[in-house]
Write a structure and sequence with these properties.
The chain has about 120 residues and is an alpha+beta fold. The protein contains two helices and six strands. It has one domain. It has a six-stranded mixed sheet with strand order 1-2-3-4-5-6. The radius of gyration is 14 Å and the shape is globular.
């Protein structure tokens, strides 16, 4: 299986609730059936923008508009390089929009296994 890779570094997103421009790095690995999105915190966003944990809905919706990737098919990971912590985020969607999400810790082994599913 071959995956497409799209890197958006940095990606600027704006929270409609707070009207704050924020940045993160986004890597997208996509097959015909599913999409892995890794949203990474940026140190230069720490004092000026919202953390990536506040943006799954906005970022997923933007990726849907830009590339057509359905939020329902996204496997979502957040990564904070300052702490080394990965978090799996399960997006709950309705009508192509993220309505809410659930977070859970994600081990390095789980991250490697997910990325291996999209090996190029």
């Amino acid at each position: 299986m071959s995956a497409r890779h799209i890197a958006i570094k940095p990606m600027t997103w704006v929270s409609p609730e707070f009207s704050v421009a924020s940045k993160c790095d986004v890597d997208i690995l996509a097959t015909d059936h599913e999409t892995l999105v890794v949203a990474t915190e940026r140190p230069d966003n720490e004092t000026t923008g919202l953390p990536v944990s506040q943006g799954p809905g906005v970022i997923a919706q933007t990726l849907y508009h830009w590339y057509g990737y359905e939020p329902e098919s996204m496997i979502w990971l957040e990564y904070n390089p300052m702490t080394g912590i990965h978090t799996r985020v399960d997006l709950v969607c309705a009508n192509h929009r993220v309505t809410h999400w659930h977070r859970s810790p994600c081990s390095l082994q789980e991250v490697a296994a997910l990325k291996a599913r999209f090996s190029m």
